[in-house]
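Quarterly update, task 2.4: zinc ion-bound model.
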Amino acid sequence: MRLLIGSLWQTAAMRGFGLEPIFSHFGIQTYRVMVRLLPRPQSSSHYAFLGHCHSCGEYKTVSWRKLSRAVCDQDGLPLTLSGPLWLGALHKVEFVRQMAEVVNILPSDRQPILQDLLQLFAAEADLPPYHFPLGEIGRRGQMDPPKRDRLIAALQAQGHRASATHLCAQAIKTDATLQTCIHLSRSNINPIDNVNPINSIDLLHKLRSSL
Ligand SMILES: [Zn+2]
């Protein structure tokens, strides 16, 4: 999805325009993006590279100027780079809020599913351009995968931003490091509560069957 938006951004820039994503959606096998052309080109700060450290699992955004010295902040090892990609927000939060207002005039039986889904889109919109799978947090921490909503709550209690993501039901997006996620997961292994997490894939299935 970020490759697609990045390609659109580059094409627009070559023609003297700017571009911003309004709404982006991944559903099963289909990527859909809605973008707005802007009258002037923008800074390329959101069109850059994403680095991943295979040793410790951390991610880092890398600008064009720092490509030749992209190393992991945790251990100094070279990063594997992807890109150039769109690294900015996937959705315009104001537009998502306007969609939520429209949902209020739909039949009431569809409203809860759509509102939950839109809440998820708004929450993930401008979080970092990567996510941490719960399975990887568990594997690297040598424990069972953490409960998603419990980990999100723990991260937020520590002052981090964190959210589920519609891109993967078993993953989180956060501005915290993977190491922080592992540390908090270890300290939150027990007890398990009755949290009923928002599963975006389930929501999409329910939505399709209700239309
Ligand atoms: Zn590393």
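Highlight for this quarter: The mean pLDDT is 89.
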